[in-house]
Structures are given as C-alpha cells and as structure tokens.
Amino acid sequence: ITRTGFRGGLNWYRNINKIPAITAPFLGSTIEQPSFYMGGSTDLIAGNTPEAIGGMQNALGDLRHCEIIDGAGHWLQQECASEVNAALLAFLEGLD
C-alpha cells in the first residue's frame, strides 16, 4: 500500500469519523493563497453544488479559477485531460 501511494486515500476513510473534530479549530478560517478549483458536474463525491461552490468562494480569499466541466465526473484529470492541463498551466502562469 505504501509503495503504490494508496495509503493516503485509505487513511482518509480510516479516519473519516475523526475529521470533524480535527478540522473544528479551522471553522470560519479563510485561505489567502492563490487557489484553483476544477470539478465535474456529474461528480457525486465532491458535491459540486451551487451551495458548496458559494462556500468555497467565501473561504478562499484569492480564488483565481473555479470551473465546473459539464458532463465530467470524479476522475476529471483522466476524463478531460486537455482542459485540466490548459487550466492548470494558465493558473500557474498567472502566479506572481
């Protein structure tokens, strides 16, 4: 598991009941670093609802790119590789 890099994903699920307590001190905090978000409209895991996106925009003080790709799912980088790469490169080129 460690060699394949799968441990991080498994640890998320192993600790899912601890996450609210661990993240509680950060409630209401904002992230001021330049931020990028891209998701798929059919991603049932990320929950790209208008409410979630609105909350993200409030929490990320320097959200420079926020895009939901219509028809794409959870594996965005595989489903829409060219769109993801172009958006990432544009974001990185825009950093100071």
Topology, number of strands: 2
What is the helix tally?
5
How do the helices and strands follow one another from N- to C-terminus? HHEHEHH
Uncertain runs are none
Terminal CA distance reads 38 Å
| Coarse structural class | alpha+beta
Shape: globular
Assembly status = single chain
Global Rg = 15 Å
> Approximately what portion of the residues adopt beta-strand conformation?
15-25%
Average pLDDT, rounded to a whole number, is: 91
Describe the structure.
This protein has 96 residues and is α+β, with helices and mostly antiparallel strands. It has a domain at 30-93. Helices cover 42% and strands 21% of the residues. The protein has five helices and two strands. It has a two-stranded parallel ribbon with strand order 1-2. The longest helix is centred in the C-terminal third of the chain and has 13 residues, at 81-93. It is globular and about 35 Å long. The N and C termini lie far apart (38 Å). The model has no long low-confidence stretch (mean pLDDT 91).
List keywords for this structure.
42% helix; 96 residues; two-stranded parallel ribbon; alpha+beta
